Amino acid sequence: MLTIGKLGNAAGVKVPTIRYYEQIGLLPEPERSAGNQRLYGKSALERLAFIRHSRELGFPLEAIRDLLSLSDRPDQSCAAADIIAKDQLAAVDARIARLTALKAELERMIAQCAQGTIADCRIIKVLGDHSHCSQDHRISEAVE
Amino acid sequence: MLTIGKLGNAAGVKVPTIRYYEQIGLLPEPERSAGNQRLYGKSALERLAFIRHSRELGFPLEAIRDLLSLSDRPDQSCAAADIIAKDQLAAVDARIARLTALKAELERMIAQCAQGTIADCRIIKVLGDHSHCSQDHRISEAVE
DNA sequence: TCTTGAACCTCTATCTACTAGAGACATTAG
DNA sequence: CTAATGTCTCTAGTAGATAGAGGTTCAAGA
Ligand SMILES: [Zn+2]
Ligand SMILES: [Zn+2]
Ligand SMILES: [Zn+2]
Ligand SMILES: [Zn+2]
Quick check: A58 and A88 in contact, CB under 8 A? Predict the structure, then answer.
């Protein structure tokens, strides 16, 4: 049995984060020692590792919640898991597209700065007026 | 003079967001009408447009605060503005790098799924164990 | 002039995914 | 036994807004 600190070390997750996951129902309430300290077994470690890795791949906690409940039903079709993963891929693609547009605009802005005074600075000018921009980085404001 | 709704329309910013910017000191407190409603002039519109465009380019509000105070001192060197913009570009680059690694891993994962049961699903397997991954998407966890 | 409806006011709470700290109890090493 | 570390609960804070409650003000039509 692992204390919360050992579990955190083993899974690469900080202790307060583990308690947070328990609080929001992502991890089940574990056993307690005589002194009221949490004690975890192997399955908790696996579950936490699953959560951590999913977070590293950018899945939101709600998606992870769904993935976990899917993984508890091994006989079912994995179509639902597929959909979640594809949604995540689409979200990542959208972010990359947006960030790439931002990057181009930032580079253009920085390249045009002549290192003079604020009054002449292209960076300040461009920030004040989108018409100085070359691209439509305004699209898909929802994502970032 | 513009009411808050007209200002929001003109700048493309929602009304509660304008009040929020005022609350955190990013916009100065405007005049009020006899009935206590906010009234804005041209300079407030310019300032708000600057904020909006900077947000669209991904600058955090604290950076925008600094940029605004720079733009109030037209005679100064723009070196500080340059640094802020370059920092932002570096942050965008880091995010793109991380997201690109995630994208590759997600695509690999999805491609390997044979559309069978959860028990055999590569998506679930990979999420449970990073050693199934081909890349080090773990690096630079701080950013996303 | 009266009235309706939109726009405005303040204040509080909510969202994501945690992180930090206070003050108290438990455990372990020396 | 004591000191250090670990753990407990609880609250509050982070970014950048958004949403709602409950109340006022404004502009236009009848
Ligand atoms: Zn410049
Ligand atoms: Zn622009
Ligand atoms: Zn599958
Ligand atoms: Zn991995």
Answer: yes
Question: What are the backbone dihedrals phi and psi of residue B127, each rounded to the nearest 5 degrees, phi first?
Answer: -60, -35
- Report if pTM > 0.85: yes
Q: At which residue do the structure tokens 């605060």 appear?
A: B65
Distance from CA of B87 to the nearest CA of A (A): 10
Q: What is the dihedral of CA B67, B70, B76, B78, to 10 degrees?
A: 0
CATH domain B4-59 topology: Multidrug-efflux Transporter Regulator; Chain: A; Domain 2 (1.10.1660)
Please write the tens of the pLDDT for every residue from B90-104: 999 999 999 999 999
> Where do the structural domains in chain B lie, given as residue ranges?
4-59, 79-132
Pick the ligand that lies closest to the CA of residue A109.
1
**What's the Å distance between residue B107 CA and nucleotide D26 C1'?**
56
Furthest C-alpha separation in chain A: 70
